[in-house]
Amino acid sequence: MEGMAIRLQGLRKAFGRTEAVAGVDLEIADGEFFSMLGPSGSGKTTVLRMIAGFEAPTGGTIELAGSDVTRLAPFERDVHTVFQDYALFPHMTLEQNVAYSLKIRGVPRARRLAQAREALASVRLEGFGARRPSQLSGGQRQRVALARALVGRPKVLLLDEPLGALDLKLREQMQIELKAIQREVGITFVFVTHDQEEALTMSDRIAVFNQGRIEQIGTPADIYERPATPFVAGFVGTSNLLTGEAAERVVGRAGTYSVRPEKIRVVKDSGNTGDPDCSTATGTVAEVVYLGDATRFLVDLDAGGRLTALQQNLETSSEDVAAYRGSRVRLQWHHRHNFRVPDVPPDAPPEAAPADRRPLRTR
Ligand SMILES: Nc1ncnc2c1ncn2[C@@H]1O[C@H](COP(=O)(O)OP(=O)(O)OP(=O)(O)O)[C@@H](O)[C@H]1O
């Protein structure tokens, strides 16, 4: 099919009794930055390895640019994989590192050097060609690994947590760079990560994985603002669920509702009922955490349950913050920030236990 880089249909993989991938259907368009997001062990890497051809599916099909490649060897597929623990040859210059795969393929010297220089320029390492890997920072080395992948001009680049080894600052910088590079080169990127912030920052679309299945596919805004299942609501951001009596009293309807922490305003309880356009809930501050630029409140609601609220520290200082602990507050947010979280369908897999999840950088 024209415009389609990857199509997975009914893709499955079992390792003995472990069903790592339990039926995945997915279409990724040409030039898309597509992320597979999910907790550890949810099957993302296995899907990536099947697309690359390193792992044979137990069932289902894989198409690349409209051709069935399910049974083809990795080298017969027009894809390239960048791993987290990329290895550069220490004794070679960057130019030689990047040109190496072209050399293996018998590309003449002048051409491969020209292409290597071009690839280095595309990752903003112009003029670095004569250096050796030991003379680079971690982020620069990661970019060389990327240049090495781009030099063969694959249709699709598969990236398995490529920023995982970098420290937080560098990682955030590389997220922005990587997205810009992808936009410029126009290659389809399929990016595996367990970090929701990373997926939200870079992706055109995201598939959220849980226990070998996809729970939701959508744009970052879809996933964050309109999570399709309680699992997605909880994994991407802080879920803040209102259920049962709390939903009826606060939202005014039965069901499960969620509101994002940054939408909630915390007001010292003055007794009045507040704005008619807003949902309001009174409660007691159980915990308050000063985060520098913002403050996080954990509030036990009178209607039952607990909500997290995140407030910018526009006027608040750390001394003010401490005084909130144990005090009565009113939480309020505009009605439009209440979103209904569909109940889990009966055949859906159970939610992963919190212990299965890696810590997220949500606040
Ligand atoms: N070669 C293998 N042999 C046996 N089991 C495997 C193998 N590879 C993966 N698994 C299992 O399959 C499941 C999915 O693993 P996978 O690596 O795809 O998850 P993931 O979502 O990429 O996790 P992570 O973020 O930790 O890499 C896990 O239960 C894992 O233990």
TrEMBL record:
Pfam families, alphabetized: ABC_tran, TOBE_2
GO MF assignments: ATP binding; ATP hydrolysis activity; transmembrane transporter activity
A Gene Ontology cellular-component term: ATP-binding cassette (ABC) transporter complex
InterPro entries on file: AAA+_ATPase, ABC_SmlMolc_Importer, ABC_transporter-like_ATP-bd, ABC_transporter-like_CS, Mo/tungstate-bd_C_term_dom, P-loop_NTPase, Transp-assoc_OB_typ2
Name assigned to this protein: ABC transporter ATP-binding protein
Residue intervals of the ABC transporter domain: 6-236
Feature: compositional bias, Pro residues: 343-352
